[in-house]
Amino acid sequence: MNFIEYVQLNPFQKFLYKLKMFFVNLPKNLGKFFKFIGMKIAAFFIGIGHAFKFYGTSFVKGDWSTKISYLIMGFGIMVKGQIVKGIVFLAVEIAYFAFMIGFAWQHLSKFLTLGAAGTETIYVDGMPVMPEPDNSMLIMLFSVLAIIVTVLFIFLYIVNIRINVALEERKRNGEHINSLKEDLATLLDERYHVTLLSLPTLLICTFTVLPLIFMILIAFTNFDRNHPMNGHFDWIGIQNFFDIFAGNPKKAATFQSLVGWTFCWAIIATISCYIVGVIIALMINKKGIKCKSLFRTMFVMTVAVPQFVTLLLMAQMLNDNGFFNVLLRHMGVVGEMDFVPFLTAGWNAKITVLVVNLWIGVPYTILSASGILMNIPEELYESARIDGAGPVVTFVKITLPYMLFVMTPALIQQFIGNINNFNVIYFLTGGGPNDPYLYNAGETDLLVTWLFKLTTGRNDYSLAATIGILVFIFCATLSLITFNMTRSSKDEEAFS
Amino acid sequence: MIKSYKLRRNISNTIIYVILTILCLIWIMPLVWLVMTSFSGEGVVYSTNLIPSSWTFDNYVKLFTEIDPSKVNYPRWFLNTFIVACFSCVISTLSILMVSYTFSRLRFKSRKKIINVGFILGMFPGFLTMVAIYYLLKIMGLTQSIVGLIVVYSAGAGLGFAISKGFFDTVPRALDEAATIDGATRNQIFWKIILPMSKPIVVYTILTSFTGPWADFIFAKLLLVDQVDQYTIAIGLWRMVDKEFINSYFHQFCAGSVIVAVPITALFLKMQKYYVEGVTGGAVKG
Amino acid sequence: MFKYTKRILGVGLASLMAVTAFAGCGGSTTSDGGSSSGGSSNAPADNSSSQQEVQQLTIDDIMSDADLALSKEDNVKLKVWGPQETLELLKKQCEDFVENFKKLGRTIQIECVAQGEADAQANVRTDPDNAADVFGFASDQGMELFNGNYCMPVRLQFVDAIKNANLDDAYKSVLHASEDGAEELPYAFPETGDNSYILFYNNEALTEDDVKTMEGIMKVCTDTKKKFAFNVGNGFYGAVIPFTAGGTLGLNPDDNTLQQLNYNEEDVTKVAKAFADLCANEYFKDEDVNQTLVSGFKNGTHIAGVGGSWMIKNMEKALGDKLGAAKLPTINVDGEDKPLVPLYGYKNIGVNAKTKYPYTSQALAFYLTSEACQKERCEECGWGPSIKSLAESDLVTSNVCLNALYESQKNSVPQVNICSSFWDATGAYGAYMVNKDKKHDDASLKSQYEEMVKNITKG
Q1: Topology of domain A245-491, per CATH?
Q2: Which residues pair with C136 in a beta bridge?
Q3: Which of B133, B215, B218 sits opposite A306 (nearest CB)?
Q4: Which domain holds residue B228?
Q5: I need a surface site. Which of A63, C6, C196, C210 has the fewest CB within 10 A?
């Protein structure tokens, strides 16, 4: 297909074409990708080589204060006039060594063994004294912290030298050297992104990145129900990954079964909500229908009520003796003695959660679809009408493609959201009904609710971490692909 | 010809009205049942009636009068949630707007890479690492208290930049350029020009970050194990329908849910417009 | 170049400073956690001999002598977890304990918080440091709590007292050996002897003779068109099938975390077949009795059901004088009436191994499980006692439900050393047997049996 043909396609077809080409080109691109990675790695090492050369020559050529800066950070900077900045560097160096020697080393030194297991319980005058094993969790956490701090320190060390060299050159050329005030002023203008990003970055690093690294490490240990919190556990390599793929029949069977259901669930839940939502939105927005906002408000009410309230409520209503069953008995659909096990029998529960999810999810679609529908250019419809297209044709040829095009990113987000849809499953069925063939999981469990149950009820932390990593890898890959394929990233400069 | 077209349209519109009304009823019925039950004076959990046989306001009154600090303390839970919501709303809104403005308007080295990394991390549901987060907070002494909750809810907020970045992308860059020529710094542009122009997305961000804590269950349960005093509404209400409590507290649960739902619903309906603009990433202008 | 390096400096500094600050906070936690490791290694390690050396104490001894009970502990703050429905009584008993030691010159503060047994043990395992000092748990949770060192073993001074006072099975449910071949010592205090199920029935519809056999009950049900509820599809109740056939439970000796089943396939299948035949009756209901039984009795749809001891209070409310209770009926297997054998659990009180006040916590747990407290719990909350003398007293024998429980305890399998895989697999087996729509020929019975064994024993 050449460019002219491509431009003539409607947006939806363009998207399909891109999708097709993505898969057609996948092998080639993968090849490119690995080549790219290889080159990057090579470039990295070459870069390190260059860096050593650079710092070597800088050291040899630099003046005495630069040379001292290789040992005492910030010294050269102070001498060259930027006193406060120099002091900050010096303080960083002192703080780093104090931190490492005074605190971090005792943990870092045990990182490879994760400490030692405790001794037996002993009795002193009849009173039991419990063993005090090393706390592997703390060792791991502080070791990771120490490593991150060290990397940061090395980085600052390099920065220190670079500033020295740069300042030396400016001095030599007689250029202006910024005062502290001028430096700070740039933080509000040229370097404003530093100001804006530093606090969020710090928070994210501490509460997202650090736990993530930590969790990845846990996946390679045997931290489980037999190795209590606060106690000692060991590295076991990739045993956990091996277990859930093949090594442990029960865990592997559970993993397979849950992956299957998670995908079924995510696909059906996403598509069903989308279709029903769009249809209702179309009905509400049809010309000649009055009370549009009343109808919309009715549906939107369910979005506004906190989800856990509606879900807990639904769980009560769908109970074996809940509202719906009582209603059915009154209507004579089921006998006085019977009930429909909405949530307590395998397939029923699966269907029920999907239906309830429809109830929860459709209003969101209505909300966004209404907005989009109002935005479809009227000319498109007019020209279609002139061409003699009926309502069905207009819908299939114009409305649907347009909406799909605008909503695809949102749909994929929703798909990922559904893979991680904890609330609906957990509050309605709690993953149940339980299945003896599965490892601590029920028939409606998703990977994430399984993970939650493994963590809170069973203390199988390493298994939970392993699942978490796999879910994360999948979601991240999927979203990265779509993010880069859809217009939002490409057209971000469209208005500039 | 015209007449029959009108007739056909009328018939189809009538059908649509009927369908919409039925659907509306289906959607609204559970909520009606919730409200009805909250006023019900029947002592049983699984009532057979949609409309209660006896009406009472007791369930509401009891929530605020029958307080047992070791079991149920609704007013305190409400206050806790409100405090958490306010604090995390301020912190989250600021971080989201700061990050998304930076990614949208400022140009710096490795910007693309940083955005991609942020995007991937943003896809990551925080509770997958809950053990690690729990331990981290424990070391900081923040478990068992709502301070820890505020931290958890707002710390990662900056990663939710995608939607507001999409919005900022649509604000014409010419504005910045004009302001720069007039000698404004980027700091001034952000606060004085872009933010006032972006009311929908600011409201949307405030709205979502304020309502978040009212609904979160996982972290509240993880952090506030037995600190009934520190519970938030979500976990408190969940406790009320736990099998140990449901027989005595089911009607109060309904009343409590209504009390939470009313303000949030009102807020939401009022801000609906902004929400739509937010969700569709600024693609739709209201 | 210049611009670039300075920008990075900003980010780096901010994070480095925060990182050090954050690390500083953590420092204190480790130092007090780690310092005591190995500190007590020079204490006597031979626990079997030390047991004989210590002076045995009774509840009266410790309640009258603060030094014996609390050692040097003063200004103690404890947290106790107990289930919601008995919280008021628990508070009162804790206050009595506090009052007693106030008189003896010690200050104790106790905070009681509602945590059901299931939540309590999970929360203890999730974070022992923030968990209660003293908490209740069901005996089937014991294995994991003891294996993970979450429970502090009982002070040797109390061992004889709880051993002599409690029912044998109740005492066995708290025993644990800290390592292979070590002597078994109690790791918790038996609190109740009633965590099981009995037959509840409407004594206007069924006579005492009817309820002796399953066949008798089903006959009346069929005649009167009323339901009999027995949740065989739940492992807790479904376990009667293998146990009635003489099966017992143990742990795999190689690895204390896997279940060992001492089942005989032929016998179990015979009992299962008897169940299948008898329950192919529309008035037999395998349903969640927690939800249906009380209301079923109230509105007359049920005339009998197998339900747990925790339902007693509600049953009394629902049926009043019409409430009848008996130990489980017999079932006819190949012409022989075999008594159904229930799984019989106990509730225990454990002391958190991480408690700051081991002496006070132990004394409190000892007090809460003493005869006086168990008596109060029995009178006010209907909890059956684990103390032998109470179980044989009027208190129990005059109460039809508790008496039935105590009767069934005599022929039961204690709920100890049960792995979590046991429940679902046993339940699934039971559910299959009483499902009228499934085939019950020899081949499918065999394959169901094999499935169950496989699912239980493979963890």
Answers
A1: MetI-like fold (1.10.3720)
A2: C349
A3: B215
A4: 70-279
A5: A63
Of A466-475, C29-38, C57-66, the one with minimum mean pLDDT is C29-38
The total of other beta-carbon atoms located within 10 Å of residue A422's CB is 16
Count of domains in chain B?
2
Which domains does chain C possess? Answer: 59-194+346-397 (3.40.190.10), 196-344+414-457 (3.40.190.10)
User: Nearest C-alpha of chain B: how many angstroms from A422?
Assistant: 9
- DSSP assignment letter at B123: T
Q: Are residues B40 and B85 in the same domain?
A: no
Same domain for B222 and B113:
yes
Find the residue in C nearest to A138 (Cα).
C30
Q: Give the per-residue SS3 of B270-283.
A: HHHHHHHHHHCCCC
Same-domain check for residues B35 and B142: no
- State how far the alpha carbon of B203 is from the alpha carbons of A374, B197, B270, in Å: 22, 12, 11
Query: Model pTM?
Result: 0.83
- CB contacts < 8 A (A, B): 274
- Using one digit for the tens of pLDDT, what is the confidence trace for B113-149? 888 888 888 877 777 888 889 888 988 888 888 899 9
- If 0-12 CB within 10 Å is exposed, 13-18 middle and 19+ buried, where does residue C383 land? buried
Are residues B31 and B114 both part of a single domain? no
Contact A416 B126 (CB under 8 A): no
Q: What burial class does residue C333 get, using C-beta atoms within 10 Å of its C-beta: 0-12 exposed, 13-18 middle, 19+ buried?
A: middle
**Residue C10 Cα, gap to closest chain A Cα (Å):** 7
B18 and B85 in a single domain? The answer is: no
Give the type of residue at A32.
K
The answer to whether the CB atoms of C18 and A202 lie below 8 A apart is: yes
pLDDT given for residue C12 in this prediction: 39
The answer to whether residues B226 and B131 belong to one domain is yes
CA distance A4 to chain B (A): 26
Tokens coding C127: 């974070």
A324-364 tens-digit pLDDT:
888 888 888 887 667 788 887 878 899 999 999 999 889 88
CA B40 from chain centre, in angstroms, equals 28
Contacts of A138 in chain B (CB under 8 A): 139
In this structure, is residue B225 part of a structural domain?
yes
Name the DSSP letter for residue C309: G
The residue out of B39, B60, B81 marking a domain boundary is B60
Condensed to tens digits (0 to 9), the pLDDT of residues A33-71 reads 888 888 888 988 898 888 888 888 888 887 888 888 888
A363 exposure class (CB count in 10 Å sphere: 0-12, 13-18, 19+):
buried
pLDDT of residue B107: 87
Residue B272 shares a structural domain with residue B130: yes
Are residues B258 and B216 part of one domain? yes
| Residue C331 host element (H or E) | strand C330-333
Domain positions in chain A are: 62-237, 245-491
Residue of C25, C31, C37 for testing the chain A interface, max A β-carbons within 10 Å: C37
